[in-house]
Amino acid sequence: MKKIMLGNEAVARGAYEAGVKLVSSYPGTPSTEITEVIADYKEVSCEWAPNEKVGAEVAIGASIRGARAMTCMKHVGLNVAADPLFTVAYTGVNGGLVFCVADDPGMHSSQNEQDTRNHGRSSKVPVFEPSDSQECKDFIKHAFEFSEEYDTPVILRLHTRVSHSRSVVEICDPKPIEVKDYVKDPSKYVMMPANAIKRHVVVEDRTKKIIKDSSDLTKNIGLHKVEMRDTKLGIITAGATYQYVRDAAPDASVLKLGMVWPLPMDLIKDFASKVDRLVVVEELDPFIENEIKANGVKCEGKELFTMLGEYTAKMIRAALTDLPLPEEGIDATNLPVAPGRPPVLCAGCPHKGLFLALSRLKVQVMGDIGCYTLGALPPMQAVDTVICMGASVGMAHGFDKATDGVDSKKTVGVIGDSTFLHSGITNLLNAVYNESAITLIILDNSITGMTGHQQNPSTGRNIRLEEAPAVDLEGLCRSLGVASVRVIDPVDTFGSEKVIKEELDKDVVSVIIARRPCALIPTGRAKKGVEVSVDYDKCKACGACGRIMCPALIMGDDKKPMIDAEQCNNCGLCVNVCKFDALMKGEE
Q1: CA distances from 375 to 313, 388, 412, 491 (A)
Q2: Which among 126, 139, 112, 119 has a CA at the least distance from the CA of 239?
Q3: Residue 169 is inside which H or E element, if any?
Q4: Coil, strand or helix: which one is 282?
Q5: Mean pLDDT by 10 residues, the chain (588 residues)
Q6: Residue 445 and residue 519: Cα distance in Å, rounded?
Q7: Alpha-carbon torsion (292, 295, 297, 300), positive or negative
Q8: Alpha carbon distances (Å) from 59 to 68, 69, 144, 457
Q9: Pair 526, 516: CB distance under 8 Å
Q10: Cα–Cα distance measured from residue 411 to residue 504, given in angstroms and rounded to the nearest whole number
Q11: Angle between helices 425-433 and 391-402 (to 10 degrees)
């Protein structure tokens, strides 16, 4: 049976067909849908982990016990999971073990561009890279088999365009895979120095064997593909870039690599010998190019292409051929141009009132990864820094210590509930232990918002929306030694401002939990037909409500507000900022 599938959906299907027993992941765009789809297969043990390191370690445990296991994350998530990755490369596996890692060239939803192939090379773990949905399904199945054959974890490197594009996939029945017997073997699985030294030898020998065998992967399972056409131009490429190359240079000979680390150098040298000009086309780092040149093969690469962002067929064609560029599919010359619209928080978003309060207080705000990163933009313009998951807490502590406590009176850390559980807890413990005086605000919107509303340990539901134990954030913070823990409703922006000011005056670590559900989940939505109303007799057209930039509030030509009933969530933020009682919440 054939079906059109998203790349991520195809990975999930392939893992299911391969007999995966356990999947433990942390959501991160563009990888999230893999685990969400896996959850639909009831035979698979599936879970959201608090962070990528935990997810990886759960999968490693299942693998050593003898089950096929997988963990999924985005590229920056692999940084969090790098510690277990580098060591499980030494121990090897029992059941097949795959790390699915989705890179994000162009930074559609990420704070950096990062090339996962470098992690593969550094950790000495093979990296497979599919180019469409069918290969997503096939390659994950190959990855499990390869993992068990060579006693190694395998990285499946995905890409935004592959993860989020759809193509036809051949569906098969799942393969029954028994959990293997576990045999106690400390010399293999206990990585104390004496054992690790011996296992390093095994890893290097394994890499040599994989390189020796990798050229055969072309004819054995079709992992690498050689497409000989006009030999004046030969292109080496992989993954999503292969699709651009086929459109850009349809007559060129192409070597499409399916395993991008370690590289099949014999195959590459043979291909190079058959073409007059050899060009490597790859997004981000010159990873393949540098390896090929290091092996004495002459080629072109990054001197023709940028190291930044995504490529297009048009860009590649312009760099490689004298052929005219393809015509645009649509003549956009006379089309109306949509007005520019800055990104804003959703109507009814609980974060906006909190950030407006922080903006009025003129404090320094150490931000974090989540929807609330938009607190850096108008109308709030409150966030000073955003680095990575959990960093807000440690950075606020750093600000405090760098100025001998002076900045503790004017600096806060802001972090979401899911991000706090991901990597904020240890930073908060550190701040308490080292006698900081920071104020941390946990934005508890009852969900993992930015990646599409996944559950987390504080929501009371698991990945399948079944009831699960919920972390008590207040109790957790007190158990870490936080002296003052308070809960506020962030829509009460002026009440929030008062509480924040009081906590900033304290000389100990304090936590404020700003609690209100995300406006896009059922518990955060107002009933249909219940929205804010306007008393135009009282309205003075002062513009205060308009300045909060709520998408549900439209300013008329008379500078008085109109309410978009379809978008209004009846949160009451505009009601709170109106000094003339001209705005009224609807009755629930």
Answers
A1: 36, 15, 13, 14
A2: 139
A3: strand 166-170
A4: coil
A5: 96 97 96 96 96 96 97 96 97 97 91 93 97 96 96 97 96 92 95 95 95 80 91 96 93 96 94 97 96 96 93 91 65 72 85 94 93 89 92 93 80 94 96 94 92 92 94 97 96 96 94 94 86 92 92 90 91 94 86
A6: 9
A7: positive
A8: 8, 5, 13, 18
A9: no
A10: 8
A11: 20
Residues of 38-65 as b/e, b for ≥16 C-beta within 10 angstroms? bbebeebebbbbbbbbbbbbbbbebbbb
The domains found in the chain, sorted by start residue, are 2-215 (3.40.50.970), 227-320 (3.40.50.920), 350-524 (3.40.50.970), 532-585 (3.30.70.20)
| Structure tokens belonging to residue 418 | 């899911």
Sign of CA dihedral 172, 19, 26, 77: negative
Could you tell me the two tokens for 189?
């699985």
Which residues in 96-161 belong to E strands, given as ranges? 97-103, 127-128, 154-159
For residues 259-277, one letter each, b for 16 or more C-beta atoms within 10 angstroms of the residue's C-beta and e for the rest, the string is bbbbbbbebbeebbeebee
Is residue 114 classed as helix, strand or coil in its secondary structure?
coil
Give φ, ψ of 558 to 5 degrees.
Answer: -85, 10
How far CA 343 is from CA of 63, 372, 581, in Å, comes to 43, 12, 29
Span 554-574, pLDDT tens digits: 998 888 999 999 899 999 999
The Cα–Cα gap between 397 and 98 comes to 37
Residues 6+ apart with CB under 8 A from 304: 279, 319, 320
- Helices 7-17 and 133-150, axial angle in degrees (round to 10): 40
Q: What share of the chain is helix, strand, coil (3-state, %, to 5)?
A: 40, 20, 45
Q: Give Cα separations from 490 to 180, 293, 318, 351 (angstroms).
A: 52, 57, 52, 7
Close Cβ partners of 410 (under 8 Å, ≥ 6 residues apart)? 362, 363, 364, 504
Enter the tokens of residue 178: 């028994």
Buried b (16+ CB within 10 A) or exposed e, 285-315: ebbbbebbeeeebebebeeebeeeebbebeb
CA atoms within 13 A on the CB side of 561: 30
d(CA 232, CA 317): 15
